[in-house]
Amino acid sequence: MRLSRSIRNRFVIATVALVAVGICALLTLSFLLGTHTRGALRDETLQSELDHNIELLARDPAAQLSQSKTLRIYRAESADLPDEFVTLPLGAHPFVAAGGRLFHVVVRESPRGRIYASFDITERERLESQNRWVIMSCGALIVLVVALAAVWLARSLLSPIDELAARLEQISPEDRDVRLAKTFGDSELAPIARSIDGFLGRLDGFVERERSFTESASHELRSPLAVLQGAAELLADQSRGQPALARTIERIRRATRDMSDFTHTLLLLSREPQSVTSPGDQCDVTEVANRVIEEQRILLTGKPVTLNCNCNEPMVVAAPASLVKIVLSNLLRNAMSATDSGSISCSIHGRTIELSDSGAGIPEGAMERIFDRRFSLSPGGHGLGLHLTKRICDKFGWAIALESTATGTVARVTF
User: Fold this and answer.
1) What is the CATH number of the domain that holds 372?
2) Where would a tag sit more exposed on the chain, N or C end, judged by fewer CB atoms within 10 A?
3) H or E segment to which residue 19 belongs
4) What is the DSSP letter of 377?
5) 43: exposed, middle or buried (C-beta count within 10 Å: 0-12, 13-18, 19+)?
Protein backbone atom coordinates (compact mmCIF):
# COMPACT_ATOMS: atom_id res chain seq x y z
CA MET A 1 0.00 0.00 0.00
CA ARG A 2 2.70 2.48 0.96
CA LEU A 3 4.66 1.72 -2.20
CA SER A 4 1.69 2.41 -4.46
CA ARG A 5 0.88 5.61 -2.56
CA SER A 6 4.46 6.74 -2.95
CA ILE A 7 4.41 6.07 -6.70
CA ARG A 8 1.00 7.73 -6.99
CA ASN A 9 2.12 10.84 -5.13
CA ARG A 10 5.28 11.15 -7.21
CA PHE A 11 3.32 10.70 -10.44
CA VAL A 12 0.75 13.36 -9.48
CA ILE A 13 3.37 15.81 -8.23
CA ALA A 14 5.55 15.35 -11.33
CA THR A 15 2.59 15.75 -13.70
CA VAL A 16 1.22 18.85 -11.97
CA ALA A 17 4.69 20.40 -11.70
CA LEU A 18 5.40 19.77 -15.38
CA VAL A 19 2.07 21.30 -16.48
CA ALA A 20 2.44 24.24 -14.08
CA VAL A 21 5.97 25.00 -15.29
CA GLY A 22 4.86 24.71 -18.91
CA ILE A 23 1.90 27.04 -18.40
CA CYS A 24 4.02 29.57 -16.49
CA ALA A 25 6.67 29.52 -19.20
CA LEU A 26 4.05 29.89 -21.95
CA LEU A 27 2.29 32.77 -20.19
CA THR A 28 5.56 34.55 -19.44
CA LEU A 29 6.70 34.19 -23.05
CA SER A 30 3.34 35.41 -24.38
CA PHE A 31 3.39 38.44 -22.03
CA LEU A 32 6.93 39.36 -23.05
CA LEU A 33 6.26 38.91 -26.76
CA GLY A 34 2.96 40.79 -26.51
CA THR A 35 4.57 43.70 -24.68
CA HIS A 36 7.43 43.85 -27.17
CA THR A 37 5.09 43.67 -30.18
CA ARG A 38 2.72 46.33 -28.86
CA GLY A 39 5.65 48.59 -28.01
CA ALA A 40 7.15 48.16 -31.47
CA LEU A 41 3.82 48.95 -33.17
CA ARG A 42 3.34 52.07 -31.05
CA ASP A 43 6.86 53.17 -31.79
CA GLU A 44 6.28 52.73 -35.49
CA THR A 45 2.99 54.64 -35.35
CA LEU A 46 4.48 57.52 -33.35
CA GLN A 47 7.59 57.71 -35.56
CA SER A 48 5.34 57.89 -38.64
CA GLU A 49 3.28 60.69 -37.06
CA LEU A 50 6.46 62.56 -36.16
CA ASP A 51 7.75 62.28 -39.73
CA HIS A 52 4.45 63.63 -41.03
CA ASN A 53 4.33 66.55 -38.61
CA ILE A 54 8.00 67.46 -39.14
CA GLU A 55 7.23 67.75 -42.88
CA LEU A 56 4.25 70.01 -42.04
CA LEU A 57 6.42 72.25 -39.88
CA ALA A 58 9.06 72.42 -42.62
CA ARG A 59 6.44 73.76 -45.06
CA ASP A 60 4.56 75.90 -42.54
CA PRO A 61 6.08 76.69 -39.12
CA ALA A 62 2.62 77.66 -37.85
CA ALA A 63 0.97 74.45 -39.04
CA GLN A 64 -1.49 72.68 -36.70
CA LEU A 65 0.10 69.48 -35.29
CA SER A 66 -1.75 66.12 -35.06
CA GLN A 67 -4.14 65.78 -32.13
CA SER A 68 -6.66 63.08 -31.25
CA LYS A 69 -8.15 61.46 -28.15
CA THR A 70 -5.17 59.14 -27.68
CA LEU A 71 -2.39 60.60 -29.86
CA ARG A 72 -0.90 64.10 -29.58
CA ILE A 73 2.15 65.88 -31.01
CA TYR A 74 3.81 68.63 -28.90
CA ARG A 75 6.43 71.24 -29.68
CA ALA A 76 9.00 72.08 -27.03
CA GLU A 77 7.39 75.52 -26.64
CA SER A 78 3.81 74.15 -26.43
CA ALA A 79 2.01 75.56 -23.40
CA ASP A 80 0.19 72.28 -22.68
CA LEU A 81 3.35 70.10 -22.84
CA PRO A 82 3.33 67.98 -19.63
CA ASP A 83 6.26 68.67 -17.30
CA GLU A 84 7.05 64.93 -17.18
CA PHE A 85 7.79 64.99 -20.93
CA VAL A 86 10.18 67.95 -20.78
CA THR A 87 12.90 66.04 -18.95
CA LEU A 88 12.78 62.99 -21.21
CA PRO A 89 15.87 62.32 -23.34
CA LEU A 90 15.67 61.64 -27.08
CA GLY A 91 14.21 58.25 -28.03
CA ALA A 92 11.24 56.04 -27.16
CA HIS A 93 9.80 55.77 -23.65
CA PRO A 94 7.11 53.03 -23.37
CA PHE A 95 5.63 53.91 -19.96
CA VAL A 96 5.53 57.54 -18.83
CA ALA A 97 3.10 58.62 -16.10
CA ALA A 98 1.73 62.15 -16.37
CA GLY A 99 -1.42 63.71 -14.92
CA GLY A 100 -2.70 60.40 -13.63
CA ARG A 101 -2.45 58.80 -17.08
CA LEU A 102 0.04 56.48 -18.72
CA PHE A 103 1.67 57.37 -22.06
CA HIS A 104 4.01 55.92 -24.66
CA VAL A 105 6.26 58.85 -25.65
CA VAL A 106 8.78 59.33 -28.48
CA VAL A 107 11.10 62.38 -28.44
CA ARG A 108 12.79 63.64 -31.65
CA GLU A 109 14.83 66.63 -32.81
CA SER A 110 13.55 68.60 -35.81
CA PRO A 111 14.75 71.68 -37.70
CA ARG A 112 12.16 73.62 -35.69
CA GLY A 113 13.32 72.26 -32.31
CA ARG A 114 12.50 69.29 -30.12
CA ILE A 115 9.16 67.59 -30.81
CA TYR A 116 7.20 65.06 -28.71
CA ALA A 117 4.73 62.36 -29.76
CA SER A 118 2.57 60.77 -27.03
CA PHE A 119 0.12 57.88 -27.15
CA ASP A 120 -2.31 57.44 -24.24
CA ILE A 121 -2.14 53.75 -23.21
CA THR A 122 -3.98 54.01 -19.87
CA GLU A 123 -7.16 52.18 -20.87
CA ARG A 124 -5.33 49.60 -22.95
CA GLU A 125 -2.97 48.74 -20.07
CA ARG A 126 -5.95 48.44 -17.74
CA LEU A 127 -7.63 46.04 -20.16
CA GLU A 128 -4.41 44.11 -20.66
CA SER A 129 -3.95 43.82 -16.89
CA GLN A 130 -7.47 42.41 -16.60
CA ASN A 131 -6.76 40.03 -19.43
CA ARG A 132 -3.58 38.87 -17.70
CA TRP A 133 -5.54 38.07 -14.53
CA VAL A 134 -8.11 36.15 -16.58
CA ILE A 135 -5.38 34.20 -18.36
CA MET A 136 -3.59 33.44 -15.07
CA SER A 137 -6.87 32.27 -13.52
CA CYS A 138 -7.45 30.00 -16.52
CA GLY A 139 -3.91 28.67 -16.13
CA ALA A 140 -4.55 27.90 -12.43
CA LEU A 141 -7.83 26.20 -13.36
CA ILE A 142 -6.02 24.11 -15.98
CA VAL A 143 -3.42 23.07 -13.36
CA LEU A 144 -6.23 22.07 -10.96
CA VAL A 145 -7.99 20.04 -13.66
CA VAL A 146 -4.70 18.36 -14.58
CA ALA A 147 -4.05 17.56 -10.90
CA LEU A 148 -7.48 15.90 -10.55
CA ALA A 149 -6.96 14.02 -13.80
CA ALA A 150 -3.50 12.91 -12.65
CA VAL A 151 -4.92 11.63 -9.35
CA TRP A 152 -7.61 9.68 -11.17
CA LEU A 153 -5.12 8.32 -13.71
CA ALA A 154 -2.63 7.35 -10.99
CA ARG A 155 -5.33 5.50 -9.06
CA SER A 156 -6.44 3.73 -12.21
CA LEU A 157 -2.90 2.74 -13.20
CA LEU A 158 -1.82 1.71 -9.69
CA SER A 159 -5.01 -0.04 -8.60
CA PRO A 160 -3.49 -3.47 -9.45
CA ILE A 161 -0.66 -2.76 -6.99
CA ASP A 162 -3.19 -1.90 -4.27
CA GLU A 163 -5.12 -5.06 -5.07
CA LEU A 164 -1.95 -7.15 -4.92
CA ALA A 165 -0.98 -5.59 -1.58
CA ALA A 166 -4.49 -6.21 -0.21
CA ARG A 167 -4.37 -9.85 -1.31
CA LEU A 168 -0.99 -10.32 0.36
CA GLU A 169 -2.26 -8.75 3.60
CA GLN A 170 -5.24 -11.13 3.61
CA ILE A 171 -3.05 -14.23 3.38
CA SER A 172 -2.87 -15.90 6.77
CA PRO A 173 0.31 -17.76 7.78
CA GLU A 174 -1.88 -20.82 8.20
CA ASP A 175 -3.26 -20.63 4.64
CA ARG A 176 -1.72 -23.09 2.22
CA ASP A 177 -1.76 -23.40 -1.57
CA VAL A 178 -2.67 -19.71 -1.99
CA ARG A 179 -1.72 -18.47 -5.48
CA LEU A 180 -2.10 -15.04 -7.11
CA ALA A 181 -1.05 -15.48 -10.75
CA LYS A 182 -4.59 -16.34 -11.93
CA THR A 183 -6.00 -13.12 -10.50
CA PHE A 184 -3.39 -10.96 -12.24
CA GLY A 185 -3.05 -12.98 -15.43
CA ASP A 186 -3.80 -10.02 -17.76
CA SER A 187 -2.10 -7.37 -15.63
CA GLU A 188 1.35 -5.83 -15.81
CA LEU A 189 1.86 -7.34 -12.36
CA ALA A 190 1.57 -10.90 -13.66
CA PRO A 191 5.39 -11.51 -13.52
CA ILE A 192 5.48 -10.23 -9.93
CA ALA A 193 2.46 -12.38 -9.02
CA ARG A 194 4.16 -15.45 -10.51
CA SER A 195 7.32 -14.71 -8.53
CA ILE A 196 5.27 -14.37 -5.36
CA ASP A 197 3.54 -17.66 -6.14
CA GLY A 198 6.95 -19.31 -6.44
CA PHE A 199 7.96 -17.89 -3.07
CA LEU A 200 4.65 -18.97 -1.48
CA GLY A 201 5.23 -22.48 -2.84
CA ARG A 202 8.70 -22.64 -1.27
CA LEU A 203 7.28 -21.18 1.94
CA ASP A 204 4.54 -23.84 2.03
CA GLY A 205 7.21 -26.52 1.73
CA PHE A 206 9.26 -24.93 4.50
CA VAL A 207 6.25 -24.63 6.82
CA GLU A 208 5.25 -28.20 6.15
CA ARG A 209 8.76 -29.46 6.95
CA GLU A 210 8.86 -27.34 10.12
CA ARG A 211 5.43 -28.56 11.20
CA SER A 212 6.47 -32.15 10.59
CA PHE A 213 9.64 -31.60 12.61
CA THR A 214 7.71 -29.92 15.44
CA GLU A 215 5.22 -32.75 15.66
CA SER A 216 8.00 -35.34 15.60
CA ALA A 217 10.04 -33.44 18.19
CA SER A 218 6.98 -33.10 20.40
CA HIS A 219 6.57 -36.86 20.43
CA GLU A 220 10.19 -37.97 20.36
CA LEU A 221 11.40 -35.55 23.07
CA ARG A 222 8.50 -35.81 25.49
CA SER A 223 8.62 -39.59 25.71
CA PRO A 224 12.26 -39.92 26.89
CA LEU A 225 11.85 -36.91 29.18
CA ALA A 226 8.85 -38.58 30.80
CA VAL A 227 10.94 -41.72 31.28
CA LEU A 228 13.77 -39.68 32.84
CA GLN A 229 11.36 -37.90 35.18
CA GLY A 230 9.79 -41.18 36.25
CA ALA A 231 13.19 -42.78 36.83
CA ALA A 232 14.37 -39.74 38.82
CA GLU A 233 11.28 -39.92 41.03
CA LEU A 234 11.94 -43.62 41.65
CA LEU A 235 15.59 -42.99 42.50
CA ALA A 236 14.55 -40.17 44.83
CA ASP A 237 12.40 -42.60 46.81
CA GLN A 238 15.27 -45.10 46.98
CA SER A 239 17.83 -42.50 48.09
CA ARG A 240 16.15 -41.58 51.34
CA GLY A 241 18.67 -41.61 54.15
CA GLN A 242 21.56 -41.04 51.73
CA PRO A 243 22.03 -37.22 51.61
CA ALA A 244 24.87 -37.19 49.06
CA LEU A 245 22.97 -39.42 46.64
CA ALA A 246 19.74 -37.48 47.25
CA ARG A 247 21.42 -34.19 46.28
CA THR A 248 22.71 -35.73 43.05
CA ILE A 249 19.31 -37.17 42.18
CA GLU A 250 17.68 -33.81 42.96
CA ARG A 251 20.00 -32.16 40.47
CA ILE A 252 18.96 -34.78 37.89
CA ARG A 253 15.31 -34.13 38.62
CA ARG A 254 15.79 -30.36 38.33
CA ALA A 255 17.73 -30.70 35.08
CA THR A 256 15.03 -32.98 33.67
CA ARG A 257 12.29 -30.50 34.62
CA ASP A 258 14.27 -27.63 33.06
CA MET A 259 14.79 -29.65 29.89
CA SER A 260 11.10 -30.45 29.74
CA ASP A 261 10.13 -26.79 30.25
CA PHE A 262 12.69 -25.67 27.68
CA THR A 263 11.42 -28.18 25.12
CA HIS A 264 7.83 -27.15 25.81
CA THR A 265 8.76 -23.50 25.37
CA LEU A 266 10.51 -24.09 22.04
CA LEU A 267 7.51 -26.04 20.76
CA LEU A 268 5.17 -23.23 21.81
CA LEU A 269 7.30 -20.51 20.23
CA SER A 270 7.36 -22.39 16.94
CA ARG A 271 3.58 -22.06 16.64
CA GLU A 272 1.44 -19.08 15.69
CA PRO A 273 0.64 -16.57 18.48
CA GLN A 274 -2.97 -17.72 18.81
CA SER A 275 -1.71 -21.28 19.38
CA VAL A 276 0.62 -20.39 22.24
CA THR A 277 -2.02 -19.93 24.90
CA SER A 278 -5.52 -21.12 25.59
CA PRO A 279 -8.21 -18.98 27.25
CA GLY A 280 -7.65 -20.75 30.58
CA ASP A 281 -3.85 -20.27 30.75
CA GLN A 282 -3.03 -18.18 33.81
CA CYS A 283 -0.34 -18.20 36.45
CA ASP A 284 0.78 -16.23 39.49
CA VAL A 285 4.16 -14.61 38.81
CA THR A 286 4.85 -14.30 42.53
CA GLU A 287 4.37 -18.01 43.07
CA VAL A 288 6.54 -18.88 40.06
CA ALA A 289 9.27 -16.48 41.21
CA ASN A 290 9.42 -17.99 44.72
CA ARG A 291 9.53 -21.52 43.29
CA VAL A 292 12.32 -20.61 40.83
CA ILE A 293 14.40 -18.98 43.56
CA GLU A 294 14.11 -21.98 45.84
CA GLU A 295 15.03 -24.36 43.02
CA GLN A 296 18.04 -22.27 41.95
CA ARG A 297 19.53 -21.68 45.41
CA ILE A 298 21.71 -24.74 45.01
CA LEU A 299 23.66 -22.96 42.24
CA LEU A 300 25.06 -20.58 44.88
CA THR A 301 26.54 -23.37 46.95
CA GLY A 302 30.03 -22.36 47.96
CA LYS A 303 29.57 -18.70 46.99
CA PRO A 304 29.39 -15.86 49.57
CA VAL A 305 26.18 -14.60 47.99
CA THR A 306 22.87 -13.92 49.72
CA LEU A 307 19.65 -14.47 47.77
CA ASN A 308 16.64 -12.42 48.90
CA CYS A 309 13.09 -12.63 47.60
CA ASN A 310 10.59 -9.87 48.36
CA CYS A 311 7.75 -11.21 46.24
CA ASN A 312 4.60 -11.30 48.35
CA GLU A 313 1.73 -9.68 46.46
CA PRO A 314 0.10 -11.97 43.86
CA MET A 315 0.37 -10.92 40.21
CA VAL A 316 -1.66 -13.00 37.75
CA VAL A 317 -0.78 -13.01 34.06
CA ALA A 318 -2.47 -14.76 31.10
CA ALA A 319 0.37 -17.08 30.16
CA PRO A 320 1.52 -20.63 30.91
CA ALA A 321 3.57 -20.93 34.09
CA SER A 322 6.27 -22.80 32.15
CA LEU A 323 6.98 -19.73 29.99
CA VAL A 324 7.10 -17.35 32.96
CA LYS A 325 9.43 -19.79 34.67
CA ILE A 326 11.78 -19.86 31.65
CA VAL A 327 11.99 -16.03 31.70
CA LEU A 328 12.68 -15.78 35.43
CA SER A 329 15.04 -18.79 35.48
CA ASN A 330 17.22 -17.36 32.71
CA LEU A 331 17.44 -13.96 34.37
CA LEU A 332 18.19 -15.48 37.77
CA ARG A 333 20.86 -17.84 36.41
CA ASN A 334 22.56 -14.94 34.65
CA ALA A 335 22.57 -12.98 37.90
CA MET A 336 24.03 -15.96 39.79
CA SER A 337 26.66 -16.50 37.11
CA ALA A 338 27.75 -12.85 37.22
CA THR A 339 27.85 -12.58 41.02
CA ASP A 340 30.81 -14.12 42.86
CA SER A 341 30.08 -12.31 46.13
CA GLY A 342 27.49 -9.91 47.46
CA SER A 343 23.75 -10.25 47.04
CA ILE A 344 20.94 -10.99 44.60
CA SER A 345 17.43 -9.74 45.25
CA CYS A 346 14.07 -10.25 43.60
CA SER A 347 11.10 -7.92 44.15
CA ILE A 348 7.75 -7.04 42.60
CA HIS A 349 6.48 -3.49 42.11
CA GLY A 350 3.02 -3.28 40.60
CA ARG A 351 3.17 -5.24 37.34
CA THR A 352 6.97 -5.27 37.23
CA ILE A 353 9.30 -7.92 38.64
CA GLU A 354 12.87 -6.78 39.28
CA LEU A 355 16.01 -8.89 39.66
CA SER A 356 19.16 -7.07 40.82
CA ASP A 357 22.64 -8.35 41.58
CA SER A 358 25.98 -6.96 42.76
CA GLY A 359 28.01 -8.69 40.06
CA ALA A 360 30.55 -7.32 37.61
CA GLY A 361 27.88 -5.90 35.31
CA ILE A 362 27.55 -5.98 31.55
CA PRO A 363 30.24 -4.21 29.49
CA GLU A 364 28.97 -1.10 27.74
CA GLY A 365 29.73 -2.40 24.27
CA ALA A 366 27.90 -5.67 24.92
CA MET A 367 24.60 -4.13 26.05
CA GLU A 368 23.41 -3.56 22.47
CA ARG A 369 23.93 -7.24 21.58
CA ILE A 370 22.89 -8.79 24.88
CA PHE A 371 19.66 -10.28 23.41
CA ASP A 372 21.26 -11.47 20.18
CA ARG A 373 21.23 -15.15 19.45
CA ARG A 374 24.61 -16.84 20.03
CA PHE A 375 25.99 -13.83 21.90
CA SER A 376 27.26 -14.79 25.34
CA LEU A 377 29.36 -13.08 27.99
CA SER A 378 30.38 -16.38 29.54
CA PRO A 379 33.18 -18.41 27.91
CA GLY A 380 31.66 -21.48 26.32
CA GLY A 381 28.13 -20.07 26.58
CA HIS A 382 25.70 -20.26 23.66
CA GLY A 383 23.78 -17.02 24.27
CA LEU A 384 20.38 -18.69 23.91
CA GLY A 385 19.06 -17.85 27.38
CA LEU A 386 18.46 -14.11 27.01
CA HIS A 387 17.54 -14.51 23.34
CA LEU A 388 14.85 -17.00 24.28
CA THR A 389 13.73 -14.76 27.15
CA LYS A 390 13.36 -11.81 24.77
CA ARG A 391 11.38 -13.93 22.30
CA ILE A 392 8.95 -14.99 25.01
CA CYS A 393 8.50 -11.40 26.21
CA ASP A 394 7.94 -10.17 22.65
CA LYS A 395 5.46 -12.97 22.03
CA PHE A 396 3.28 -11.88 24.95
CA GLY A 397 3.91 -8.13 24.78
CA TRP A 398 5.93 -8.00 27.99
CA ALA A 399 8.57 -5.28 28.33
CA ILE A 400 12.05 -6.43 29.33
CA ALA A 401 14.87 -4.04 30.17
CA LEU A 402 18.42 -4.38 31.50
CA GLU A 403 20.38 -1.69 33.31
CA SER A 404 23.99 -2.39 34.21
CA THR A 405 26.90 -0.61 35.87
CA ALA A 406 30.26 -1.73 37.20
CA THR A 407 28.60 -2.54 40.53
CA GLY A 408 25.75 -4.71 39.29
CA THR A 409 22.87 -5.32 36.93
CA VAL A 410 19.10 -4.79 37.23
CA ALA A 411 16.68 -6.75 35.04
CA ARG A 412 13.04 -5.70 34.85
CA VAL A 413 10.11 -7.45 33.24
CA THR A 414 6.79 -5.60 33.07
CA PHE A 415 3.80 -7.87 32.47
Assistant:
1) 3.30.565.10
2) N
3) helix 2-59
4) S
5) middle
